Amino acid sequence: MTERFRSGAGRPCLDFVRTLRYRGTPTETEELPDAAAWGAWIDQLGPFSAPVRPAGVADARAAREAIHELLTGSLRPSSRQRLNRFAALPVPAPSLTPSGELRWQAEDPAAAMLALLTRDALELATSREFARVRRCAGPACGALFLDTSRPGTRRWCSMEICGNQAKKSTYRAKATAQG
Fold first, then answer.
1. Which of 56, 68, 92, 106 is least surrounded, with the fewest CB atoms within 10 Å of its CB?
2. Are the beta carbons of 122 and 83 closer than 8 angstroms?
3. Could you give the angle at the alpha carbon of 68 between the alpha carbons of 90 and 167, nearest 5°?
4. What is the DSSP letter of 34?
5. Residues 138 and 165: beta-carbon distance below 8 Å
6. pLDDT (tens digit, 9 = 90+) per residue, 93-125?
7. Which pTM was predicted?
8. Angstrom distances, CA of residue 82 to CA of 66, 92, 125
């Protein structure tokens, strides 16, 4: 499977919030424009072995924005209610196949994925880890990530992308100043 969506933010809810890429910048990009994209996100990052084909994307976007509000300290009462509603949905259930493989199943996989994501966000927001949720220092990024570094001083969501761009910019600025 081709990696279409970014992952590696440290928690599933943080990876999900990243689907509004470059949030708050002039290059803000909606990565969930339709139900097919939402299904592709679930297929790439969710627990299901069979492709998921959601009926729509509105609930996914509403959940994503409510999660973002929760994790950035700007939670409105309507978003809190939305989070609670999504978190109350049934989650996927594990089952063992005859060959001994673990499979995850749900009557409505897209709704079950929203339940997993909102529960993850609620758990994160009420845990000690929440103090280590950071916003990427990349000027064009702004993604949230969980800083799991020992000293807790990580600055970029990805050293390979944002960190590397910052280092290149610093190098160029020094070279220009010296030249």
1. 56
2. yes
3. 130
4. S
5. yes
6. 999 999 999 999 999 999 999 999 999 999 999
7. 0.87
8. 7, 20, 15
